Amino acid sequence: MGRSPLGSGPGPELVLWPLSALALPLLPLLVILLSALEGPRRLVMVVPQGQRVVSVPFTLQDGWLGSPRLALTAEIPAESSIELDVALLDGAGRSVLDLAKEGWRASGTWAEDGETGTWEESDTGVTLGLRPGRTGRFQLAVELQELLDGAGRPLPMPIVVRGSLRNHAVDVPLLLFTAAMSFAAVQVLLLATYAVSRCRRVQRSPEAAAGLRLEAAGPGLLRVSVAARWERPHDGPPAGSSLRTAALDLVVSDGLGRPWLRHREMVGVGRWSNDDDHWLSVRRQLYLRLPERDSWRVRVELPEDFRDAGEPWEIEWLQLTLEDGVVTAWPVTVLPLEGAARER
Amino acid sequence: MAKEQGLLLLVAVLVVGIGTTTAVTRPGVWRLGQEGTPPAGSSVRYGGSYRAGRWVPATPGRQEWTGFQGRGPGSAK
Questions:
Q1: Are A178 and B19 in contact (CB < 8 Å)?
Q2: FRET label pair with A136: which of A159, A250, A314, B4, CA 20 to 30 Å apart?
Q3: pLDDT digits (tens, 9 = 90+) for A262-285
Q4: For residue A153, what are the CA distances in angstroms to A76, A79, A123, A278?
Q5: Cβ B32–A96 below 8 Å, yes or no?
Q6: Is the ipTM, as predicted for this complex, more than 0.90?
């Protein structure tokens, strides 16, 4: 058996451009990141009972880069409810929007299956997403109409209303959805590029050798995938292993039975255990560039059995898969057939 | 580039382009003076709404159903 020649470098089968599409789903995520850089403008108002409190003036910007988003939260004691009047005033002090919010805050304990804990729920917030129509100064006017405890008695205390204003808020759920949908589209593109072949043949053999014939050649490579598994003839945990590699023989011949390549290499043997199941396995992919259209035959062979630390391992199955016309996203070593043919 | 790969790339680019542009420009956001009122979360009651560019306060009582007695004999109410 002749020494196999070194593989040739990357050819037209190395297709990289679909990988750049992976940057597409990052774009909406980048927009979320950039929008988070805009620090919110904070507003704090202490609102006593029965008084109308006006906030400091702030700017609401109109434009196409996001839209203003104004969030208000009333801080109220536990087990209480609130009715708050909120008005948005324009630069001249005229009310351009007024609303009333009925909020509450409740808490309690829960016990289930011997475990206990506390819960707290509240609804004391107002979130306004709106465009002002024209960039300008605005103010908020807040009035506490009612603050009641759990029994419905009025609580004579001021409350704090905190506001947070962003002028360029973006639609985050839509951006996340966009990222997910474009990622799915890119996945399909990658599958359509790297996971397709003109012709695919699979043979699973109970012996340590398998051979397949297929009509092949054309653009792309022929991918030869070998997977094999060995098991022991009897149960029980195996002794320590010194086994690391096994010899894989590959023979490629044309329609007339003339061998174009005899290749032998040592492949790594994996050792696996699952409960009382122990096995050895081999997985290897080799690439060939077929020079002409023909009925090619590919045969692979691995050792039928091993003796490892005095213990026998026997072949359980070997699976040979041939895929014609594949391209790859990373450089692979291609075993050249012409060189082997000339050597003979 | 095969035809279907070009089509898939076009789909991915369109999804990103349309989704990101819509999420940034937000054409659906309520504009001050537009008909109605903006969404503001739960348990919020507006004191009016915009009609033809003007803020029209809601008249209390007209929206309340407590004053509605309906028709028919008193024993039916």
A1: yes
A2: A159
A3: 999 999 998 888 887 888 999 999
A4: 14, 11, 19, 73
A5: yes
A6: no
pTM over 0.95: no
Query: In chain A, what are the domain boundaries?
Result: 38-176, 198-343
| A299: CB partners within 8 A, 6+ apart | A209, A210, A211, A212, A250, A251, A252, A253
Using CA atoms, how far apart are residues A126 and B38, in angstroms rounded to an integer? 11
Confidence at residue A340, expressed as pLDDT on a 0 to 100 scale: 46
State pLDDT tens for residues A284-315: 999 998 888 889 999 999 999 888 777 788 99
Continuous H helices in chain A: 17-20, 26-36, 172-194, 337-343
Cβ atoms of residues A268 and A245 within 8 Å: yes
Option in B19, B20, B31 nearest A131 (CB): B31
Helix (H, G, I), strand (E, B) or coil at A5: coil
Measured in angstroms, the CA of A242 and the nearest CA of chain B are apart by 47
If we measure between CA atoms, which residue out of A126, A141, A124 comes closest to residue A51? A141
Interface of A with B in 159-178 (CB under 8 A): 170-172, 174-175, 177-178
Are A138 and A57 contacting, i.e. CB atoms less than 8 angstroms apart? yes
Q: Which of A304-313, A314-323, B7-16, B46-55 has the lowest mean pLDDT?
A: A304-313
Chain-chain contact of A131 with B46 (C-beta, under 8 angstroms): no
Asked if A170 and B24 come within 8 Å (Cβ–Cβ), the reply is yes
* Cα–Cα distance for residue pair A212/A208, rounded to 1 Å: 14
The four Cα atoms A92, A94, A100, A101 give a dihedral, to 10 degrees, of -10
Second-level CATH architecture of A38-176 = Sandwich (2.60)
